[in-house]
Design brief:
Structural class of chain A: alpha/beta
Strand order of the largest sheet of chain A: 5-4-3-2-1-14
CATH class of the largest domain in chain A: Alpha Beta
Oligomer: homodimer
Number of domains of chain A: 2
Number of helices of chain A: 17
Radius of gyration of chain A: 26 Å
């Protein structure tokens, strides 16, 4: 069977645009004499549609669009993801996350999703009822075993711990499926692609069935979908790997022999750089921004964000601002200017000092008798935030925040100051990883000036300040944070590994007590298995951490 | 049977404090010769514990605390809510939301929650497996039918549409339950208490069983738990109603006759005022703030917030700042000063004009050739935000934001400006409802000056501006918003009711496109069935609304 995979990029809720993409892919595949055309999970409405699913008008419009699409089909099959609604027992939401198989002008078969993920960034139980049945469908003489994303992630042979009591793929296998097709929308995190590859390779070789694993691509606010659809033969060999981080279209012939692909995921810096560029580009494109704005401090974080913006917007559409104060080193401006030249972008330089001084003068009576403290540091950051927002408002720039994950984790950031912005581009990347990305960017020629890479990190908010006045060295900090956040290790285990109880206690406490800042943070582009934002939900008021 | 209800206020995660409260209540009830003592859902860990449940160390500490509590019991029963863990089938989370019945030094019976809510502000499927069984437990010669919160909300006789295919209460009834006990943590929304009363009254009279409905009280970030535990006799008469918005302790004797209570919920202004005071007070108390700060504009919103803060903190702990600009009317300051006098609070007056002017001077080159626009308006708001945050940082004040629901809905608010603050006190209260609250506050004497109530609402960010330059009249706006947000009506239906399609389109579009601002908003105290924040999840990137 010749199966065309349309690895396209939908916009959530844009039914007209998504419908056009489905039909364009279908028509292309019909011309290519494919038997079946496959698009990803919930492609028609975009994934994740969140509370749009609760809107009757939205569901009606989706239903209509799906029917219109079906009516345009001929004998070539078209399989795509969409929400559907049935009122069989009229209990619960009545809504399903479904795969619709259309041909000869009609929706001929609907398979609902059986396993409804409800962890990390997934809230699907909020919207969807699980399928009551999963069964094969015979099409052009072949029994197709159609499933949706999570359905394929509960293989008892692969996982030590099962999330769900049933395995829909086993049911399809038992029912005599000859080809497995899984339509998916699987958000990227570094390492995820290798895991998909290993798990699916084991599954297909165990079951002796070929598999088409059709993935979406593109970013939806925080979530980045990396594409990289996969087609396996019945020996678990990867035959086709879709393009990474861009749209793709290809035809998989289940009767053909392919060379086996082994290398599915690049190194951290390579993958994450590409992911973040897509994340930033899609955020801008899908919300209508054409130009980006970044406050350039002379440090490595804002330098990397400026580079990513140039890749996402084109250099002519990136504007940066240097906003020195009396604590800014000479080097900060020089280094920034070098970067600006390397990137070929436009810039402003606007001192904050006079506004800071004027503000302190206005507040002097209210501050009478009080020592200088973090207030004055925050104020500098907030004047910069105010400048950036004014420029963003006046010129329609998308303001990118430049905080990294180490800072956001420990609250080493000023609310309404450097946290201002529409998107936290590197908010899921630790400081030590930022250096890896800088090396990667510079691998052919120096784009990020070495001065920026080599200087000691500093917020430059008081004389001779460095980050390490407040925080432990970044390699130590990041290894604690990674254990605590991604690996979900806890205090005793981390303290044992690190061997410094009071330090671990301090870091974990910083993470816990800064929930209130993250509540008001810009959306963070997710590139790890546990990013701040939607997939991590801690109460702001909570005595557990205060007591530790 | 004599059943003591401890309607107490836990802190999420504060196991030591919550454990002490459980044992204090138990000892009091033992002295009062009660047979059984009941505390609310998940009382030991606090509700909702959110992702704390995913921490092994947290679960272990909860388990230990529960065992320690049980070991302190004598023959008097103690029933309280806690998370528990079982590894029977080792599929899924293995964690349950449970009611633990302890006596004679041990946990004697555990009933897990059967119906796991996963809508609006509830995410419980993320953490909890449903009970596999629900059964009565005989204690002191009576068959107790113990259930947890949502378990009692699926009565087929009461609801038109069922969320769940099973009804645990019917099972308890069929098993011969003689007394129903439901431990609950039910967040308040105006109208909710009457609904609880009606539903439970019907259920108890249908089943001919008495019911103890033990509720938690207190606020946890956004959620306000109003207390008002209820005890019904077997005829569906309400015998005891716990105190509203405060801790309470009482004993219900199932053999005694009580006078029937009919009046369970006051009018909107009365209830919501009390709810917001509790919400603000508990946020401060549980996060350690002793003093509040409010920016006073001369308008009604900040006046109401100042009043609520006085009630929550005491007048000696409330500080307000007037921050006039060249667009501020004379009246704004005079009216504010009158309010300050009425409330007996301290104040500052700090002009923003010089800082605004200095900032514009610094930005003049970057703004060259551009017309004045919303940038300059936002800038004024942001200078005020910067002042407020500086004062908050310097003096340790809790900064309260003063935006109402109508503004937050339509994006009529400045990000990092008037949106600065730890808690959006009136963010779930429409502008028209703010006026109702003002009338309520003034019912005995004028506290909110009539000048503030009577003036046309204005942001005073440009000459002679009023809110109605940008927004429809508030009564019309609020009726559209209420239909769209709380009643979850949609465009066609709303347009039909309002009779002005373009206006409805405009308002709905404003709501939809301002998701990005709300993403970065302070937590909103929830007093309606659909508040902004945790219980309302829309994608920032979404083509559905843009297209309308």
């Amino acid at each position: 069977m010749k199966i065309a995979v349309c690895q396209y990029n939908p916009i959530i809720g844009d039914l007209k645009g998504n419908k056009d993409k489905i039909l364009n892919g279908y028509n292309l595949a019909v011309n290519n004499k494919a038997d079946l055309v496959v698009l990803p999970e919930l492609f028609l409405c975009g994934y994740p549609p969140l509370d749009l699913v609760e809107k009757k008008e939205f569901r009606s419009a989706v239903k209509l669009a799906a029917e219109e699409i079906a009516s345009d089909t001929i004998e070539v099959g078209l399989l795509f993801g969409s929400i559907t609604e049935t009122f069989e027992d009229n209990i619960g939401t009545n809504v399903y996350n479904s795969a619709l198989l259309c041909f000869d002008g009609k929706i001929q078969f609907v398979q609902h999703k059986t396993l409804i993920p409800n962890y990390d960034v997934f809230d699907e139980v909020r919207y969807f009822e699980p399928a009551k049945n999963i069964s094969v469908f015979e099409f052009k003489g072949k029994k197709l075993g159609i499933s949706i994303c999570e359905d394929i992630w509960n293989d008892a042979d692969y996982w030590k711990h099962l999330r769900y009591p049933v395995d829909p793929i086993k049911k399809l296998y038992d029912d005599g499926a000859e080809i497995l097709i899984n339509i998916s929308a699987s958000p990227y995190a570094y390492g995820k692609r290798i895991e998909r590859f290993k798990m699916l390779s084991k599954l297909t070789s165990d079951d002796k069935l070929p598999l088409v694993y059709a993935c979406g691509v593109g970013a939806q606010t925080e979530l980045i979908f990396d594409g990289a659809s996969m087609c396996f033969d019945k020996d678990g060999q990867l035959c086709i790997l879709g393009k990474k981080y861009e749209e793709d279209y290809f035809v998989f012939d289940t009767n053909k022999n392919y060379e086996s692909i082994k290398n599915v995921e690049g190194n951290f810096a390579e993958e994450v750089t590409a992911a973040l560029i897509l994340g930033l580009r899609d955020y801008a494109r899908k919300t209508g921004f054409k130009q980006a704005l970044i406050g350039l401090s002379g440090g490595i974080d804002s330098a990397i964000v400026a580079y990513l913006a140039v890749k996402a917007f084109g250099k002519e559409n990136v504007h940066v601002v240097m906003m020195p104060s009396k604590y800014s080193s000479e080097g900060s401006i020089e280094d920034s200017e070098k970067l600006i030249e390397n990137l070929g972008i436009s810039s402003d330089k606007i001192s904050i000092q006079e506004v800071v001084d004027k503000t302190l003068e206005m507040l002097s009576e209210s501050f009478y008798g009080k020592e200088e403290d973090v207030t004055e540091e925050n104020l500098q950051s907030r004047v910069r935030g105010m400048y950036l927002m004014a420029l963003s408002n006046k010129h329609g720039y998308l303001l990118c925040t430049t905080g990294n994950k180490s800072e956001i984790a420990t609250g080493y950031a000023t609310l309404y100051g450097d946290m201002c912005g529409a998107l936290a581009v590197i908010g899921d990347v630790y400081k030590t990883q930022i250096y890896q990305i800088a090396q990667y960017i510079n691998k052919e020629k120096e784009i990020i000036p070495s001065e920026i890479i080599e200087k000691a990190p500093s917020a430059e908010l008081r004389p001779n300040q460095t980050d390490q006045d407040s925080l432990p060295p970044y390699d130590l900090l990041d290894s604690i944070l990674k254990m605590y956040l991604e690996e979900q290790k806890e205090y005793s285990e981390i303290a044992k590994k690190i061997g410094n109880e009071s330090l671990v206690k301090k870091v974990l406490r910083l993470v816990d007590i800064n929930e209130f800042k993250r509540k008001q943070a810009a959306p963070v582009l997710r590139v790890s298995t546990k990013a701040f934002g939607y997939g991590r939900r801690f109460p702001i008021i909570q005595g557990w951490s205060f007591l530790r």
